[in-house]
Amino acid sequence: MSAPKVIALIAFRDEEKHLPGLFSHLRNYVDAFIAFDDNSSDTSFQIAEREPKMLGLFQRKMPSQDHHYKVQNREALLRAARRHGANWVLCCDADERFETRFLEDLRRLCSSTSATVLGLRLVAVWENLQTYRVGKAFKYVLFPAIDPKPYYRRGLLHQPWYPPQFETSKKLLGYNIYHLGSLTQKDRQERYEKFERIDPHHHHQPQGYRNIIDESNLKLQPIPSERAFRYE
């Protein structure tokens, strides 16, 4: 039996800082990348274009608010993965890094799991690359490549990657995704201001976005060597 074909999917805008590291830390573990550049004004498109495992690269040149086309971009990527023969998709953000242990187990997970959608704990790397903020967030990132129709309504902001038909079949795994987008106080403030600008009345997240910058219950832990990730 041949190994499942795993394609990594990513949509991005102005991520020249993070894209090279994203590609390099995943390249040896996936069969290909399919990406969507949503109106970048930096060199992000050129970086993606040079990636040797890039199988398909979409580009939108239409000014819009951040995340305005998020649902459409993801749906296009999921459909493209299916057209290109993917068995499984690994969904990524440019400022995220997967625990190396998870990547080393990726093929086994795709070959043997009985769950449909697999999730990982999402932790914020905090002030240095050896420390993370303890929290309760998680993200479902790995699932079989299927026709996503019907997908989510356009204009939604915080929907998962997986198609709605998978909602009742999910499993959390004991691995981490490390979020680099909250690394410094400046990063956190910029993220907070971005989402407040996009969703000023908190229609998409009723509790608002102060959790990004709130340090009142801050608890930090070192990243154990066995839970490390590759950073470039």
Query: Would you state the CATH class?
Result: Alpha Beta
What radius of gyration results from the CA coordinates?
Answer: 17 Å
Proportion of helical residues? 10-25%
Q: Which fold name corresponds to the CATH topology?
A: Spore Coat Polysaccharide Biosynthesis Protein SpsA, Chain A
Structural class call reads: alpha/beta
Q: Can you tell me the CATH architecture? A: Alpha-Beta Complex
Report on this structure.
This protein has 232 residues and is an alpha/beta fold. The protein has helices spanning 19-26, 44-50, 70-83, 100-104, 106-112, 185-198, and strands at residues 6-12, 32-38, 54-60, 88-92, 96-98, 117-125, 131-133, 138-144, 170-179, 220-222. It is built from six helices and ten strands; from the N terminus they run βαβαβαββααββββαβ. Strands 1, 2, 3, 4, 5, 6, 7, 8, 9 and 10 form a ten-stranded mixed sheet that branches. The longest helix has 14 residues, at 70-83.
Question: What structural keywords apply?
Answer:
232 residues, alpha/beta, Spore Coat Polysaccharide Biosynthesis Protein SpsA, Chain A, 10-stranded mixed beta sheet, globular
Topology:
Blueprint (H helix, E strand, L loop, with lengths): L5 E7 L6 H8 L5 E7 L5 H7 L3 E7 L9 H14 L4 E5 L3 E3 L1 H5 L1 H7 L4 E9 L5 E3 L4 E7 L25 E10 L5 H14 L21 E3 L10
Parallel strand pairs: 1-2, 1-4, 2-3, 6-9
Antiparallel strand pairs: 4-8, 5-9, 6-7, 6-8, 7-10
